[in-house]
Amino acid sequence: MGATDEQMAEPGAITAISVVDSSRLSTFVISILLIVYGSFRSLNLEQENREKEKDKTNYNGFSGENDGKLMESISLSTVCARCLSSSLRPATSSNRRNASVGFDVQTIDTCQAMFLPIAASVSLLVMFLFFDSLQMVFAICTAILATVAFAFLLLPMCQYLIRPCSSGQKISFGICGRFTAAEIMSFCLSFFIVCIWVLTGHWLLMDALGMGLCVAFIALVRLPSLKVSTLLLVGLLIYDVFWVFFSSYIFSTNVMVKVATRPAENPVGIFAKKLHLSGLVRDAPKLSLPGKLVFPSMQNSSHFSMLGLGDIVMPGLLLCFVLRYDAYKKSQLNSIEAGIPQPINTIQKITYFHCSLIGYFLGLLTATVSSEVFKAAQPALLYLVPFTLLPLLTMAYLKGDLRRMWNEPFINNQSSKLEV
Q1: pLDDT tens digits for 388-411?
Q2: What DSSP line would sit under 83-138, residue for residue?
Q3: CA 38 to mean position of chain CA atoms
Q4: Which residues contact 191 (CB under 8 A, 6 or more apart)?
Q5: Is residue 362 predicted with pLDDT exceeding 90?
Q6: How large is the C-alpha radius of gyration of the chain?
Q7: Dihedral Cα 154, 297, 247, 238, nearest 10 deg
Q8: Which of 10, 205, 261, 381 would you call most buried, defined as having the most Cβ atoms within 10 angstroms of its Cβ?
Q9: Which sequence positions are flagged as catalytic?
Q10: Which keywords belong to this entry (predicted)?
Q11: What is the C-alpha separation between 397 and 392, in angstroms, rounded?
């Protein structure tokens, strides 16, 4: 998860040119675009789920048979959400409630937020100690997850391309569910790209698969409140700092960097070796697993920037939460039940999403400057969490939304409405 900035350039004084290197500019632009796109995909999914809930209510008015047909329709986002939820514990009561009305998202609760840094530490330690024994398992599981996530990323494009020649009807695949032609097309394209990545090991394909994982996680995993967000991000900040700065004192090496940069044996090469296909064994490249985004420099071939997916996904979950809250608050102000709107001052005009997005940019910039100053890997969450969380908490306090955002921001206060 820890973002690192690896470089093999000669040491020297920091310059503005080195900070705005093409690899770092790519890191800035791509990470921000992934967060914005994933957040709006999540908001769009929420609107679609509301429509599904209304449709289900209408179906319940007819017969149980129609309701059964509605519930047996499994979309690609459902499959992707179930794959992503395998890294979390079984669905909570809120997740079950969401699933019953057609929601395809996984909600992190307080216990999960406290447990995730510990689980991430255990996973990192297992990959560090037993990587040679389990590298084939890691490669296969990563390829499967990346296939589904990248299909989710390609889905809107496939829907746009296939819309003129498709009726939108779903095709049944038995127990696997029913999928539209666009979902089948996106999955086939994703599978094809993953196969090319396995055969070539090209860094650009690895980055593409990593982008799909980022968008899928941000869009399909949600934080329910500011309290859960704070617990999760602070816990991951401690996790990131420990494994980047202090792991070398225990294991004589930087565990985070070692795991992030360690290539895995190609499954094709392993199978070819067992089948005694010497030519295929020699041609199969080692795979750098898509747990990070790598951007080579155009100015210096020996320099590259590397950003862990967790440094995009975890702050992205917070930005997705505040974007949903901004949309929710706007809908409340525009509704008839909101009553007479209060005068809007300058602070009220600034949205939480814009505030947090600017904070993320400044945090990433600070992490980049720090990596250039110290010429060493930096835990990006050490800078990203304070720059995104502290301005958000301050603005929520000034706007008077802190108490509501901290606990249950999306639950209407029915009692207050009855009193009015």
Answers
A1: 999 999 999 998 899 999 988 887
A2: HHGGGSPSP-HHHHHHHHTT---EE--HHHHHHHHHHHHHHHHHHHHSHHHHHHHH
A3: 7
A4: 147, 151
A5: yes
A6: 23
A7: -60
A8: 381
A9: 240, 311
A10: Hydrolase, Membrane, Transmembrane, Transmembrane helix
A11: 9
